[in-house]
Amino acid sequence: MKRANGKRIGARVVSYAILLFWIVITLIPLYWMLVMSLKDTSMSASFSPEWFPKNPSVATYIRFFTETDAMRWLGNSLFISTVLTFTNVLFCSLAGYAFAKLRFPGRNTIFWMLLGTMMIPAQVTLIPVYIIVVNTLQLGNTYTAIMLPMFATVGNIFLMKQYMSTLPTTLIQAARIDGCSEWRIFYKIILPISKPGLAVLAIFTFVATWNEFFWPFLVTQTSSMRTIQIGLASFKFAEATDFGAMMAGSVIAALPMFILFFSLQKYFLQGITIGAVKG
Amino acid sequence: MATIVFEGITKTFADAKKGGIFTAVDEATFEIKDKEFLVFVGPSGCGKTTSLRMIAGLEKQTGGNIYIDGQLVNHVHPKDRDIAMVFQDYALYPHMSIEQNLSFGLKNMKIEKSIIEEKVAYASKILGLDQLLDRKPRELSGGQRQRVALGRAIVRDPKVFLFDEPLSNLDAKLRVQMRIELAELHQRLGATIVYVTHDQVEAMTLGERIVVMNEGKVQQIASPQELYARPQNMFVAGFIGSPAMNFIPAYVLSENQLQMGDYLLDVPLDRQDYVRAYVNRQVMFGIRPEHILLDPKGSVEVKVNVFEHLGAENLLYFSFNEQSVISKTAGENFIKAGETIAMTFQMEKMHLFDIETKQRIG
Amino acid sequence: MATIVFEGITKTFADAKKGGIFTAVDEATFEIKDKEFLVFVGPSGCGKTTSLRMIAGLEKQTGGNIYIDGQLVNHVHPKDRDIAMVFQDYALYPHMSIEQNLSFGLKNMKIEKSIIEEKVAYASKILGLDQLLDRKPRELSGGQRQRVALGRAIVRDPKVFLFDEPLSNLDAKLRVQMRIELAELHQRLGATIVYVTHDQVEAMTLGERIVVMNEGKVQQIASPQELYARPQNMFVAGFIGSPAMNFIPAYVLSENQLQMGDYLLDVPLDRQDYVRAYVNRQVMFGIRPEHILLDPKGSVEVKVNVFEHLGAENLLYFSFNEQSVISKTAGENFIKAGETIAMTFQMEKMHLFDIETKQRIG
Amino acid sequence: MAETVQVTPSKLSLFLRDYGWCYVFILVPILVFLLFTFIPVIYAFVMSFQQYHVMGSTFIGLENYQTMVQDEIFWRSMRNTFVFTVATVPVSVGITLVLAVLIFPRGKKVQTFFKASLYLPTVASGVTMALVWFWIYDPTNMGLLNMILNYIGIENTMWLGSRSTALFSLILMSWLTGHGAGIILYLAALGGIPKSLYEAADIDHASGWSQFKHITMPLLKPTTLYLLVMGIIGSFQVFMSIYLMTQGGPNFATTTIAYLIYVHAFEYYQFGLAAAESFALGIVIILASVFQFKLMSSDVEF
Amino acid sequence: GGDEEKRDVVKVWTYPVHGEYEGELKESIAAFEKENPTIKVEYEVLSWAEGLQKFDIALNSGSPPDLYFGRPLGKYKETELLVPIDDKLSIDLSDYDEVALDHMTLEGSMYGLPLYQYLHVWGGNKALLEEYDVDYEKIQLEGWTWDEFYELASIGDQENDHGDRQYGFVFQGVDEELLDHLARNNGIPYRMTEEGIQWDDDRILEAMTFIVKLRDEGIMPAETAAIDAAKRQEMYYNYQALFYGRAIPYADAIVQNRNQEIQDGVTEGEELDFVLLPIPHHEGEVEVSQGGAEGYLLFTQNNADEAHVENSVKVLEHLAGADAIGKTSSALALPIIHKEAADNYELPLSDENRLAAERLASNVLPPNTITSELAAKDDMFKTQVVVPTFQGLISGELTPEEAFEKFKTEAASAKYQP
Ligand SMILES: Nc1ncnc2c1ncn2[C@@H]1O[C@H](COP(=O)(O)OP(=O)(O)OP(=O)(O)O)[C@@H](O)[C@H]1O
Ligand SMILES: Nc1ncnc2c1ncn2[C@@H]1O[C@H](COP(=O)(O)OP(=O)(O)OP(=O)(O)O)[C@@H](O)[C@H]1O
Ligand SMILES: [Mg+2]
Ligand SMILES: [Mg+2]
Questions:
Q1: In what residue span(s) does the ABC transmembrane type-1 domain sit (chain A) (predicted)?
Q2: How far is E312 from chain A (nearest CA, A)?
Q3: Cα-to-centroid distance, B143 and ligand 4 (Å)
C-alpha cells in the first residue's frame, strides 16, 4: 500500500511538471503582451520584449482609448461576436443534432458536402464571396456582411455532431413518447444535456469571431464599422509600430474573452447524463 | 377506443459481423382489443421490447402494418400516437428533477398547472417518491429510478400504455402494491395497456390475455388460465409456470396407457380420443411440479436428489425415466435429500405433445 | 480466505435541496464469513447497492471501518481488493463487443489467452450469449445486457463476488438456470459472495444467510429458514414472504387466548410463557397467507373479496377484524368473489409482536 | 384489416411528415453554406479552367492543371505540406489528449487554473505570438532554444534560416502551441464519459494505463476524430504561421501548398492556377479525412 | 442633407503612412470638400499587413477604390482598371522630382502622383565610429568602396562593453536585399533589361564572394541567414553592430526618440546616434542609391463615367499635392520631392545626415523601364531563383561559385528570356 501511494504521488508530480512546463510556454505571450502594454514607448521602430516592466504606465491605455475609435470598435466586436455566438450555438447545435441523431434521406451526403467544401482553401473562394457580398448583394460596410458567412459554420456543426453523437438516444425517444414536438425535444432535452458542448462551442465561436480579422477587414470601409482587431492593426505604420498602444488594445480586447471563459467554464465539465439510462 | 393491430409485422436488424440480418420480430399478426390489458412474455431477447417500440413508433417495422384505432400509423409520429411508455432502461431526463421528470409529459400537453401538480403529487405518493421530488435521477437508487420511469407514464392519460418490465427492480412488497395500482389504473382510465414482464405472477394477475413470444414469433395468445391449462405447444408449456413443467418422453402403449420407463400411467378418459392417433409412438408427456403430489400411497417411488425449502413451499428434485423432475409441495413437509418417497402424478392435469411438431395433443 | 467486516459503517449523501444530509447506510455492523453466500434484501432505496459499493471501494464510507480478510481496506483502491461485481445498471463498456466486455477483466490480469478464450466461451455458453459475442451492448435486449454484466463477473476468479440484482431482467426459466449456475459457481470457486436481490425465491434458495435492511439499518441477519420462521421484528416479518404476512391487532385475554374482533384464538403451548407479560394488552398478531388454510371445518368464516388464480396457487382476499387479509391456497380450489368460506389459522405458525417496539414476542 | 377507409396521402406529404423537420433543422446552415461556400466553390471550380481576368476570363481547358503538375515547386510544397501535416497533426492531438487527461482528475480549482492558463493564451495577439517565437528561434545565442542548446554544448542553429531546420522549427512550434481549444474540448468530452465505466474497469483490475487505452481513448473517439479532421484541414491549409515566420523560405523549404496558392493568387494574380491548386489540395484533404472517418467510424453511444 | 445624395463619392484607400497621417488626411480632405462641394471623399486606412490583399481582392472583383496608395505594378495594369493620368492632370508637374514621377510611370504612361520618395541607406553607430576615429562625414559626402568598407568594418569585430559579440556589419539575411544593394553598386543597376537577366555576370559573383567573405571572417554574424529586420535593429541598438543595413533616414528620428525614452526611464538600453551612410560601391563603379516613390494611383470600376474619373483626378491632385508631400516627407525624414513643399518643410535630421540624405536622394536610380511582361519575368526570377539561391548562399549551403552557376543556368533558360 505504501508503495502504491508513493507511485501515485510520483505520477502526480510528473503530471504537474508537464502541465507547468506547458503553462509557461503558453503564458509567455500573454505575459509579454501585458508587460509591453505597460511600456509607453510610442514609436520605437523595433521592439525587444522585456521580462519586467520598468516604469509601468497606463499612458498606452489612455492613448488607446482617447486617440482612436476604440469604444466603437469594441462595441462593434461585442455586437458581432455576441450575435454570431448566439446564431452558431443555436443553428449549429440544431444541425449537429440532426446529423448525429436523426435519420433522414441524404443525411450523409449533405454532411459530406458541407465538410468537403471546408477542405477547399479560402484563398480562392475569397473573390467569389466578395463579389456575392459586396457587388451582388451590395452589403459592403454593413454588419450583415461581416456576420453572414460566419452565421453558422460547418466546423461548428461538425463539432456539435460529434458531441451529440454520444448522448443517449433513448432520451429523445422518451421525450417523443412524452408528446414532445421535435423542436421541443431539442430545446428541452438536447440543449440542457449538451451544456458542456454548447459552452465549448460558445467560447470557441466567440473567440474565433472576436479574433477574426480578415473578413471584417475586407468588407468594411469606415472606421465606425471596424472591429477591434482591425483597429489594432492600425497601430502599425510604414516604418514603425506603436507597440505599447497596440498591446494595450490587445489586453483590452482579450478581456471579454476572459470574462466569457470564466462565466462558461463551470459548464465545461459535467457528467450530465449520469443516471439517465440503465445499461 | 384504442385497438392495436399488428399485421404481418417483421423487424430485422443489420447484423454486420455475421454479414446478415437478424430477425427480432417475425411476421407477428395479432390484435389488441380496446381497453385490454395485454401482457407480453417470452424469454430474454425474444422481441418483446422491439414489439413495444414499434407500437410506439420508435422503431420502424421492416415489413407489415400497424394500425391503432383502425388507422394505419406507419407514418404517424410517436408524439401523435397518444401513448405513454415505461422504457426498460428508464430513459430518465438526467438534467431534470424527479418532479420535472414526472410533469414533463403533462407540460408538453399544456395541461393546467394545478392539475399537473395534483397528478404528480398523486403519482409520487403511490410510488413512494414524495420525499425525492427535488432530486436528480443520478441521486436515486435503481428501484427509485424505475419508479420514476413508471411514474412518468402513469401521470399521463393516454389511449395506450406501454410498460416494459416496469417492476423488475422493485422489491416484492412494492411490486404487489404496484400491481394493484396498475390494475386500478387500468380500470379507472380504461386505456389499452401492453405490458412486458418476466414475472409470471404479474403476467397471471394483471393480464387479461397473454402473448407468449419466442425468437420473434408469437407462440400463443390466450387468457392466463387458458395458457396455464392448455399450452398450445411445448414452448409455452415449458415457459409458463415456475418451476417449469416437467417433460418426460413417454411411449403410448394404448389410448389409455402411457409407458415411462418402468412405470405405466393411465390416460384420463377425456384425452383418450386424442391419444389414439399416437398409439405405439413416442410422445412428450408434460406435468407441472405442483401436480406431482407427495402421497404415501402414491404409485411412483423416487429418491430425492435435492430438497429446497422456499418458505411457503418446497421443491423436490428427483430422477424419473432418466429425466430430472421437480415437484412442488406444501411448505410443511420437510424431506432430506437421499430419502425415498412415494408420489402421485395428477394425470388429469397432464399435457401431451407431439414430439416432432411440439404441438399440443388434445 | 475472504471475510468481510462492516464496523459501524455509515454512508451519507449531501441532500442539497433539503439543505441537509441523507443517510443511506446507518451504523451497519456485521460480518460476512469466508466463502459465505450472503444475500442482501430490503425495500427499494434501503441502501443495498450503497453497501455493496462500499465493499468494492467505489464509494467511501462516511464513518466506520471495512475489513476484508482482517485487513483494514478503507484506503485500498477498488482494483486492489480482488473483487468481481455485477452492477445494478450493468455499466457495460459501450464500445466493446460482448466478447471484449467479457474478457476485459481477464486481459487486465494478464491471463493466458487460451484460458481467457476458454472462460469466455464457457460463460457465454451458460448465459446463452454465444451467438451474440460480436455485438455491441446497444444491439442487445435488456436481459441480454444483464447477462453480459453477469458474465463479466463470473469469468473472473476473485476473492469476493458482489452481485447487485443480477437476474432482475431475466425470464423465470433463465433465472432458475442462473440460480443453479451461481450456486455451482459458489461451490466451485469457494469465493465469498454478496448478493442483492428482490426475488425472495432467489434469496431463500441461494443465501446461506440473509441480511434484511431497511432505511439504511440492518434489521436482521439470519439463515433463510430462521428469517421465515422467526422474524425478529415486524418489518422483517412483513418483508419476507410473498404475499406478505398478515398483521392483525389482537388483544391478549390471557396467556392462552387472543381476541381478534369476534374471534377468540388459542395461543400454542410453547408460546404462552412469552405471552404472559402481555396479558390485557394489545399485541400485533401475524400470520402468513400460506398458514391460513381452506378448511370446511375451520373456525373462521369469511366472505371472499377477491380471488386470484396464479396457476399453481390462488390468493384469497378477505376482511378479518377490519384488516384486509390474504390467504394462499392450493391451485385446484376455485372460489368466486363474494362466496363465504370457512378457514383455519394455523396457530402454531403464528407470530406476535410488541406494538410499540415492533419486536418479536417469543 | 383496418375498417376505416384510408385517404392515401401523397408520397411527398408522407415524406415531409416523416422527415420534414429534419430538413428544417439544417435549413439555416445549409442556406448560409450554399450562398457563402457552395456557390463560391463552384465559381472557383470554373475559375480553375480559366485564365482569370476581371474584365472577362478566357477558358483554357486544363492548362492550369497542366501548369500545376509541371511546376516543380508545386510538388515540393505538396511534399512540405504533407510532411508538416503528418508530423504535426497526430502529435498535436496526442499532446492535447495527454494534457487534458492530466488536468481532468484534478480538483475544481486546480482544473480551472490549468484550463484557463492553457486556453486563454490563444487570445493573445498574433503579433506577440510571433515575437515570442522569433525570440525562441533567434539564431544568435540570445535565442531561447540556442541558449538551452549552448548550455549542453551544441552550437547555434539558424532555426528558421536554414533549409534543414526551417520546416522542423515550424513543426516544433505547432507541437508546442495551440492546444488550448482541443484541451477544452477533450475536457468536455471526458466529463461525458460515465463514471460507472471507470468503476467497472477498476473492478476489472484495469490499470490506469489500461483504463486510458481501453475506456478513455475509445470513448473520446468522436472528439478525437473532430480534432484530427480539423487538424488535417488546418495543417494542409497552413498559411498564417508561414506567412509570419518564414514566407515560405529558405529555398522553399517551408513553402506549403496554401502559401503557394496565396502567392499565385495575390502576387501573380493567377487565380485560375491558384484555384486548380486549391482543388488538388482539397482532394488530398478529403482523402485524408475519409481515411480518418473510416478509421474511427464506429460511433460511441451509451 | 439633400445635397449629400448628389455629391459624387470618390473612394480612397490608403495606409497609415506614419503616425499622424490619418489626422492629416482627414483635415486635408475636409479642406478639399469645402472647395469642391460636389465631391465627397470617402477614405479608408488599410493595415499594412493585410491591406494589399484586400485591395487585390477588390481589384480582381472589379470594384477597386478610385484612388489607392502604392506604386504602379504590371499586374495592376493588366486588369485594365488602372487608369493613365497623363492627359487628365490640370496641374503642372514640373514642381515634382523627376525620378519620383518616373516611379509612378509604367511603360511610358503615368498612373498616379508620388507622395514621397523613399531612400534605403546603411547606417552606423556614431559613438563607435567616433571611438574608432572613423571619418564618417567624408563617407557621407563622398561614398566609400567595398575595400574601404571592409577595412573599417573589420575594426568593429570585437567584444563590446556588455561582453556580447560586436560585429562590424549586420544586415538582414532572410531576403536578398543585401545582394541587391551590392549588385547595383557593382555596375549592375537592373537585374532585368531588354537583353534579359543581367545577374549572370562575374560582377554578381564578386558581390557574392564579398558577402561570404564578410560572413566567414566574422565581420557579419555567422547566423545572418536567420537574421531578420527586427533582429538586426536590435543588434544595432545593443551596440553589437558598427555598421548596419538596411536603414532609412527616418532612423535618425527614431533613434532620437528612443534616446529620449531612455532618459525618461521608459526604455532600457544605451543611447546612441545614427549616422546615415551610403551603400559602398565596388572600386571603379558608380555609387547608386536605392529608392523609389509611392503615391496615389488612379483606378476605375467597371462602369465608372467620365465625370467621376475627373473628380477622382481632382482628389488625386490634392492628396499628392505640395502640402501633403511636404508633411509626409518631413514626418518620414525623406528628401522632399516637390519644390514648393521643399521650401516650407524641414526634415528632422541632424545636419550631417540631412546633407547625406539629400546627396543620396539625387543618386537614386531611375526606375527600370522594361515592359511589364519582362517585369513579371524578373519578378519570377527573383522569387524562384534569386531568393532561394541567396538563402542557400548566406546560410552556407552554397558557395558563391555554385550560386553563380545557378544564376547563369537559370538566366539562360527560356523562362526568363525576353
Ligand atoms: N448520489 C446520491 N445522492 C443522494 N442520495 C443518494 C445518492 N445515491 C443514493 N442515494 C440514496 O441512498 C439510498 C440508498 O440507495 P441504494 O442505491 O443503496 O438503494 P438500494 O437499496 O440499492 O435500492 P434499489 O433496490 O432501489 O436499488 C436511496 O434512498 C437513494 O435515494
Ligand atoms: N440494434 C440491434 N441490432 C441487432 N440486434 C438487435 C438490436 N436491438 C435488438 N436486437 C436483438 O433483437 C432481439 C429482440 O430484442 P428485444 O429487445 O425486443 O428483446 P426483449 O424481448 O425485450 O428481451 P429482454 O427481455 O431481454 O428485454 C434480441 O435478440 C436482440 O439481441
Ligand atoms: Mg426488453
Ligand atoms: Mg440498488
A1: 74-264
A2: 18
A3: 6
Do B251 and B206 fall within a single domain? no
Kindly tell me the burial class for residue B270, based on how many C-beta atoms sit within 10 Å of its own C-beta (0-12, 13-18, 19 or more): exposed
Give ipTM to 2 decimals: 0.88
Atom of ligand 2 minimally distant from the CA of B47: 18
Q: Which residues of B touch A174 (CB under 8 A)?
A: 85, 87, 91-93, 152
Residues B272 and B129 in one domain: no
Residues in chain E closer than 8 A to A55 (CB atoms): 264-266
User: Closest to E16 (Cβ–Cβ): which among A46, A48, A234?
Assistant: A234
As a whole number of Å, the end-to-end CA separation of chain C is 37
Can you tell me the mean pLDDT for C32-43? Answer: 93
CA atoms of C116 and A100, how far apart (whole Å): 36
- The yes-or-no reply on D/A contact (3 CB pairs or more, < 8 Å) is yes
Task: Give residue-wise pLDDT tens across range A80-101.
Answer: 999 999 999 999 999 999 999 9
Q: Are residues B229 and B300 in the same domain?
A: no
The whole-number pLDDT of residue D2 equals 41
Q: Interior CA angle at E349 toward E344 and E351, to 5°? A: 95
The DSSP bridge partners found for residue C287 are C246
Helix axes B142-154, B172-189, angle to 10 degrees: 10
Does C294 lie in the same domain as C216?
no
For residue C141 and ligand 2, the question of a CB distance below 6 A is answered with: yes
Same-domain status, B12 and B96: yes
Residue span of the structural domain in which B325 resides: 246-354
* CB of B48 closer than 6 angstroms to any ligand 2 atom: yes
Point out the domain boundary residue: C239, C257, C274. Answer: C239
Alpha carbons D131 and D126: distance in angstroms, whole number? 9
Q: Are B260 and B320 in contact (CB under 8 A)?
A: yes
Domain boundary residue, one of B239, B269, B298: B239
Report helix angle C142-154 to C113-126, nearest 10: 140
Q: Which of E9, E15, E12, E25 is nearest to E323 (CA)?
A: E25
Contact between E313 and E88 under an 8 Å Cβ cutoff? The reply is: yes
Per the structure block, which three cell numbers stand in for B101?
421528470
Looking at the structure, do residues C293 and C178 belong to the same domain, yes or no?
Answer: no
Chain B, residues 169-228, CB within 8 A of chain C, namely: 169-176, 198-201, 204-205, 224-225, 228
pLDDT at C332: 65
Do B304 and B339 form a contact (C-beta atoms < 8 A)?
A: yes
Number of separate domains in chain C: 2
Contact residues of ligand 1, CB 6 A cut-off: B 139-144; C 13, 15, 22, 24, 42, 44-50, 88
- What integer is the mean pLDDT of C87-91? 91
* Chain B interface test: which of A166, A167, A172, A178 (most B C-beta within 10 Å): A178
* Helix H or strand E segment including A196: helix A195-211
